[in-house]
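Researcher: Next sequence.
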Amino acid sequence: QVQLVESGGGLVQAGGSLKLSCAASGRTGRIYAMGWFRQAPGKEREFVSFIRWSADNTYYADSVKGRFIVSRDTAKNTLYLQMDNLKPEDTAVYYCAIQLTFQTTERLTTARGWDYWGQGTQVTVSS
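Model: Next structure:
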């Protein structure tokens, strides 16, 4: 079993920054990828970003490209999301996810492509 714990959410003004963290624990001997999704009220869970754990390849949704940076600390099994120039439309619950076995890049951009999920952390951006 794997546990994921997100932290770093909060309230910020438009144009501001936040950095989210997601710590993985448990049976994490093999990590293929970790990623971030977000969900606003009444909307579907939306892909934000993911990183291939070994290859260090990163992928971003068009809506956040150029504003967000995903990174990882392999020694700590921790995923990060640096969010800059935040906009009100970024307001959502942000969830981290982990995939332990091979998965295609295409499927990792969907919520069905991941093994385990964290509890989520609220990000609110005021105008």
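Model: The chain has one helix and eleven strands. Helices lie at 105-108.
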